[in-house]
Every structure is written in structure tokens, then in C-alpha cells.
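Entry 14. Structure prediction run on the chain below.
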Amino acid sequence: MKVPPYFDYLIEGFRRGKTGRFVHLGYWDTGVKAAEVPQDDFGQAQRRLDQMLLHAAGLSDGQHILDVGCGFGGTLESINSHFSGMRLAGVNVDPRQLQICRQLASLNGNGLNWEQADACALPFAADVFHRVLCIEAMFHFPSRREFFSEAARVLKAGGALIGSDITIIPSAKHLESPTLRIKATLQDSYGPWPDPWGEEGDHSALAAAAGLRCTWVLDATAHTLASHRFTAPAGADVRHDNGHDPARRAALMLKRLHEEGLLRYLCFRFDKP
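Output returned:
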């Protein structure tokens, strides 16, 4: 199971105290320009995105929660701090990230469990969790279709899958050229990204095939755009960047796709009847 190379930089940044436990983009009001965002606001914007998704999850004390692609544990840390009697589980393919997660201590009578596993082969019995969370990780999974099926399997009746995902609009595929290698550039540092063009199907169709019903969706593309002030070099353009740093080129490519309306950032909730 391959780990996206950009996590090498994120893990090093965390160990040096330069980054926090969230590894996803941030959320701002629409119309905010990247140049106007304060340099120290990224962590707050990441927390805003996290809190919005947790609000959509409708959590309550005593629930069993699974975070798939749990990163450094920021989302479960927040739940651990604000709720009691929870059974919290995090899944990740990277043992280094899980090592960071295991630094967290249980609070409020909660239980914390961290598992190294594939998101498409979850190591849990059926009908276990009240909520499954998946924040900005699904595009890395071997198959969105298989993940939706696994999420539906481990959810209790009345439970819900809540998360966010990055997709590239299918028409961007036609922009591929020797000088604009979108898929290859993203794969170099942000891969695995098995289905960049969303050819498996959209989220609602995949969820419906797994027996899940869409109850909330938000297009947060404009709200997350300012994040690239913190993730990509200012003033650089992937079209003219011929350096040998794959992480830099991948960040610039994602920024360009976002700025040109070729990328969608979607937040959602799918319920299991």
C-alpha cells in the first residue's frame, strides 16, 4: 500500500512543530483572495472545515466513530475533547501517521484505537459504527466504489458516512499534453490517485449502489481555494516550472486546476437506512 509522497513533508513539518494535526485544506468565506489571507490563518481554516463536517455528522455521546484516512488524528482529537463515552477508531495505511496518532491520550471516558489497514478492506465487523468519517482522503483509495461498499458494511442501520473529497472535472482530461501532464504530475507526489477523472461514477451514484442515501452535499470549491497560499509557492506556475521537485510541481498543478475551475471540492453526508 503506497503512501502519498507529500506526507514525507507533512510528517517532517509536524515533528518540527511547524504544522498541526490537520492535513486537509482550509475553509474560508467565498470571495476571500489568497493574498488577503493572514499567514497564520491556515490552521484555523482547517479547523473550520473539520468542525463543519463534524456538525454535519450530528455526533452525540456514546457513539462508535470510525475515521478512514485519519491523518495525524486531528478530527478524532476534536471528538475526544468534546464528547464522552465514545469508541473512536482511526484507520491509515501509513504506520508513521499512526505513530503520531498514538500520542493522543483518551479523555472523557472515550476509547481510542488505531489500525493500519486498506480503506477498501476495513478490519471491522459489519454494523459496528454510528458514523464513518473520511475527510479529504478518498481520492487516494484504490476504489471509491469499494470504499463506499465497505463504509456501508461497517455502518449500523441509521448511521452515516460524512466526508469530503477532491475531484477533477472529466473535461480536464482533454487538456493532457506533453507540456501539461496533469495525471502524471499529480501521481508523482499526490498519488496514489487511481481515478483522477472520476470514471467510476459520481459520489451519489456510488453511494446509492452501496445502499446509502445522500442527505447533505456542499460544493466547497470556492471556500477552499485560498488554501493554495499555504500549499504552493507564490508567483510560480506549473506551466513554467521545470524543476525536479515533484511535490512542488504537484502542488502547483492542484493550484492551477483549482483556480481554473477544473477541480471540485465536495463535502457530503450519506445515510444508511
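The first strand starts at residue 64 and ends at 68.
Filed with the rest of this week's runs.
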